[in-house]
Write a structure and sequence with these properties.
Helix 9 links the parallel strand 8 and strand 9. The chain has an eight-stranded mixed beta sheet with strand order 1-2-6-3-7-10-8-9, with helices on both faces. It is about 45% helix and about 15% strand. It folds into two domains: about 260 residues, Aminopeptidase (3-Layer(aba) Sandwich); about 110 residues, no CATH class. The chain contains eleven helices and ten strands. The protein has about 400 residues and is of the alpha/beta class. It is elongated and about 75 Å long.
């Protein structure tokens, strides 16, 4: 039975500042470990180190370099100066791309420590023990469904809403600026006043967007109730439900994964991926819970379809709280465990709430912004969906 009071209790316990790599994130890990062991389950712990370069430094350097390229091309001061700067910008960008190809292995910048914790509930179909290093992710007749939430939180100078806004402004102004520079270069229309005015305006927007992105510092002032104590509470409640042998699925192994350092470039799931990289993508599905407050959008990328009649009916019956959308491949200005797993060709579902973007990563990310009934409804939905998939 899904218990709303139990969900609220977990929500309250996990709502405290817990910046990745700090002792406070370790406290959230210890709390999760204690709760898992309290269900007479033995979790697996994965320790790892990571650099803050990828999440906090790399975007600021790369966007600043591209703004400088925009400025140089528009100014067109002197041919040698222009071409020298173009070469330096592309050379530095090339070096950055090489360095960040495998973010979890970066050695630059400040190194911090974090950890993942996960536990598997095997199916009833005869598989008693699961080796998470197994090449194909279980037996031929069993599916694997992995449920994710992240343990860390972070505060920032800008909320997610404004950060995404500035990324969109940056991208729009950069593309328009390149178009203007191409016209100037190939059609020699530098003397047209209106083109120069538009170019200066676009360059100014790009410069301001770059400045705000660079000044958007990270802090440890957010309690992270929405992002992501809500997700932790859902996964914990589902773990509590399926830890009961009577509720276990017949042919699906369930993995309950709590990642660390998600707010530092998804470092937790990148390290966890080493355990599942060879899993069969046709028999392995991922479900990520991140940033849910008053409503939930289910971002479908291959798990649910029109044959899931009971699940679809549940969504329709609760359409004031739930909606279903097809997931996009790219979301500007955001990272998540779910997006990383989708990029690795896993099918599944994401869970989020766009209306919460005003509060995420700010001191306003508190429990009073969350409706526990929504979290309960989500848990009920997944018990229905998983039973349908298992039948």
């Amino acid at each position: 039975m899904i218990d709303e009071n139990h969900i609220l209790e977990n929500l309250e316990e996990f709502s405290f500042p817990r910046l990745s790599g700090t002792y406070l994130e370790r406290n959230s890990f210890n709390l999760a470990k204690k709760k898992i062991e309290g269900l007479n389950l033995t979790p697996t712990i994965q320790e790892f180190s990571f650099s803050i370069f990828y999440s906090r430094i790399y975007p600021k350097i790369s966007l600043t370099l591209l703004f400088w390229l925009h400025l140089i091309l528009f100014s067109n001061i002197q041919i040698i100066f222009t071409y020298t700067n173009i070469f330096l910008v592309f050379f530095l960008l090339f070096i950055l791309i090489i360095i960040t190809r495998n973010p979890e292995e970066i050695k630059l910048g400040r190194k911090l420590h974090s950890q993942n914790i996960f536990v598997t509930i095997p199916s009833k179909s005869g598989q008693k023990n699961i080796n998470y290093e197994e090449k194909n992710g279980g037996t031929d007749w069993n599916k694997n469904i992995l449920l994710f939430s992240h343990l860390d939180s972070k505060g920032q100078l800008l909320s997610v809403k404004f950060r995404i806004l500035f990324y969109y402004l940056w991208i729009f102004s950069f593309i328009v600026g390149l178009f203007i520079n191409i016209i100037n270069s190939y059609y020699l229309l530098n003397s047209i006043l209106i083109l120069q005015i538009v170019g200066i305006l676009v360059l100014s927007i790009n410069g301001l967007a770059t400045l705000f992105i660079v000044l958007n510092t990270t802090n440890n002032k957010s309690k992270g109730a929405i992002d992501n104590a809500s997700g932790i509470s859902i996964v914990m409640e589902l773990l509590n439900y399926y830890s009961n042998p009577n509720n276990r699925l017949k042919n699906i192994n369930l993995w309950f994964v709590f990642t660390g350092a998600e707010e530092s470039g998804t470092m937790g799931v990148r390290n966890f991926y080493k355990n599942i990289k060879d899993f069969d993508r046709e028999r392995t599905f991922t479900i990520n819970f991140d940033s849910i407050a008053k409503k939930v959008i289910l971002y479908n990328h291959g798990l649910i379809n029109n044959n899931n009649f009971k699940s679809m009916n549940f969504i329709l019956e609760n359409r004031d709280l739930m909606s279903l959308e097809n997931a996009k491949r790219i979301y500007i200005g955001t990272y998540s465990d779910g997006l990383f797993l989708m990029s690795k060709k896993f099918h599944g579902l994401g869970n989020g709430d766009k209306t919460s973007y005003n509060y995420i990563h700010s001191i306003n990310d508190n429990i009073d912004k969350i409706d526990p009934l929504v979290l309960k409804k989500i848990c009920q939905f997944y018990t229905i969906l998983l039973a349908e998939i298992d039948s």
